[in-house]
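Hi there. Long-time user, first ticket. I'm pasting a complex I've been working with (about 323 residues overall). I'd like to know whether the download I got is complete or cut off, because the file seemed smaller than I expected. Thanks.
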Amino acid sequence: MMALGPYASFIVTSYVAAALVVVILIGWVVLDYRNQTQRLRELDRSGVTRRSGRSATDRS
Amino acid sequence: MTLIDLANPTRFLALTARLLPWLAAATVILLTIGLYQSALAPDDYQQGATVKIMFIHVPNAWLSMFVWGVMSIASLGTLVWRHPLADVAAKAAAPIGAAFTFLALLTGSLWGRPMWGTYWEWDARLTSVLILFLMYLGLMALWRAVDDPSRAARAAAVLTLVGAINLPIIKFSVDWWNTLHQPASVMRMGGSTLDKSFLIPLLVMAIAFTLLFVTLHLAAMRNEILRRRVRSLQMMQASRVAFSSELGAGSREENASKEAGAA
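Hi, the file is complete. Here it is re-exported in full:
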């Protein structure tokens, strides 16, 4: 077991906060991606196409 | 592939789809190694185990400035070269930079309480980093306040370049003023003053956090391109609806005048 001394709470809080912020950032990016692709699928279903003629969900 | 080739958002999306899994895997591996080495690092003779906070504080502090540097280059791309992805890059980087700056402030504060006896001191380094954090928030607010992305991009680019003046102030604040914050110990003339047992985990964590930034930034840029695609398709849909309703109203008026003429 790692000994963190009398200031263990400060060390643990720092690492937990960093982990939390990183998880929030990853969650934000993943949820935003899902949201945008969902909206593109809905537009595709309603028949809207890009100026190039490709469907809304086409990544090419 | 050159920078010009990446000006095409579709090519950029294809590239990120290929790169993101590899970048994410490399980030996870390096973070695991860095955390393992940080856990095994010895206690400092003065700081004791609180030196472990440095392994996350320092990479976040570096990245807080690095991300603003990336945004400044992207802003030049917007204003000077008018690169189509430059403002996408700047906008996507801001929330990530704000998160790293917040972590640098928080972990620094949590280190300061046991070492300095205070969570906060209005000295030059701490205050200039707090200003950097507020500038990130201001920039994010500016992006949200203006509907048209190209207008928002120009205003944000000017603000970003003005804010870049703060970067050398942060870096050299510990040399220019008498501050509570210790001077540079890694990136300095004459080499690092850190022992290898601290320097190696610190550098591994710094590379891991930089990879984390690159991964998140590319993913956020992809999201921003998709968001703009959604916006332009919605506008196209709205204009089609308006056009067809105008057409309908026009033919109704024509029929009504014909009927009136016949009567």
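A couple of notes from our side: Residues 43 and 49 of chain B are 5 Å apart (CA to CA). The first helix of chain B runs from residue 9 to 40.
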